[in-house]
Amino acid sequence: MCCRCGLLAVSVDDDDNGFRAHPADGVGLASMRVRVTRVIATRWEHEHQFLGGRGLSRLGGFPVNKPVRLIIADDHTMFLHGLAAALAAGTELTVVGHARDGPSLMLLVERERPDVVLTDLDMPAVDGTSAIFGITGAYPDIPVLVLSMHSGDEQVLGAIRAGACGYLLKGAGRDEIVQAVLVVAAGGTVFGSVVGRRFGGQSRPLLH
């Protein structure tokens, strides 16, 4: 793993000696994406360069050619149902379930195995960050996108370290949220411009 010209490059070689993996990390390319995301979060924390004022949206290269199956989690009932209705109004997404707390979210993910999880951080019983860690640990192939009112260091870094593939603020419009869901479903990462401006206004993104 190395960084060249602002790009994080990962190479994988097989030395024919096998490997040992921690059970919580999982194996395979999907799990590798989660671990690389956590490495990036650590580097961000050290250098404090957060996406610039433009935000970041990068497609991972895997085309989405059918409606994305989405689970939504938020502890505010009216917001939850309004968001679900708005996102389901088009043809891009299919909302297959929603939850109001962390335990319900994790059970729903286990049952439905969605393409993407869209979650708030402030939830009772088990908060969103802990739920993200549980989901990405058990199902590393299911990307998690955060939609939160918080843009502080602790919340953003905590979500990324837990394995979130993207972070938007609740001021985002429907089209921005839909596009973000499609990007993470395709293996990409999305971080909104407001989050980028919150972290120092650097012009050079660390993710490509």
Strand order of the largest sheet: 3-9-8-7-6-4-5
**Helix residue percentage:** 25-40%
CATH architecture of the domain at 56-198: 3-Layer(aba) Sandwich
Q: What overall geometry do the principal axes of the alpha carbons give?
A: globular
Report Rg: 16 Å
Low-confidence stretches: 1-11, 19-25, 40-54, 200-208
Return the string of H and E elements.
EEHEEHEHEHEHEHEH
> Biggest sheet, in brief?
7 strands, mixed
Number of helices: 7
CATH fold-level topology of the domain at 56-198: Rossmann fold
What structural category do the secondary elements indicate?
alpha/beta
Proportion of beta-strand residues: 15-25%
How many angstroms separate the termini? Answer: 14 Å
Number of strands: 9
Q: Specify the CATH class of the domain at 56-198.
A: Alpha Beta
Mean pLDDT: 75
Name the CATH superfamily classification of the domain at 56-198: Response regulator
Task: Give a topology summary.
Layout: E1 2-4, E2 7-9, H1 28-47, E3 56-58, E4 68-73, H2 77-88, E5 93-99, H3 102-112, E6 116-119, H4 128-138, E7 144-148, H5 153-162, E8 166-169, H6 174-185, E9 189-191, H7 193-198
Parallel strand pairs: 4-5, 4-6, 6-7, 7-8, 8-9
Antiparallel strand pairs: 1-2, 3-9
Helix pairs in contact: 1-5, 3-4, 4-5
Give a description of the structure:
By secondary structure, this protein is an alpha/beta fold. It has a domain at 56-198: Response regulator (Rossmann fold), CATH 3.40.50. Helix content is 39%, strand content 18%. It has seven helices and nine strands, in the order ββαββαβαβαβαβαβα. Strands 3-9-8-7-6-4-5 form a seven-stranded mixed β-sheet, with helices on both faces. A two-stranded antiparallel sheet has the order 1-2. α1 (28-47) packs antiparallel against α5, α3 (102-112) runs parallel beside α4 and α4 (128-138) packs parallel to α5. The longest helix has 20 residues, at 28-47. The radius of gyration is 16 Å and the shape is globular. The two termini are 14 Å apart.
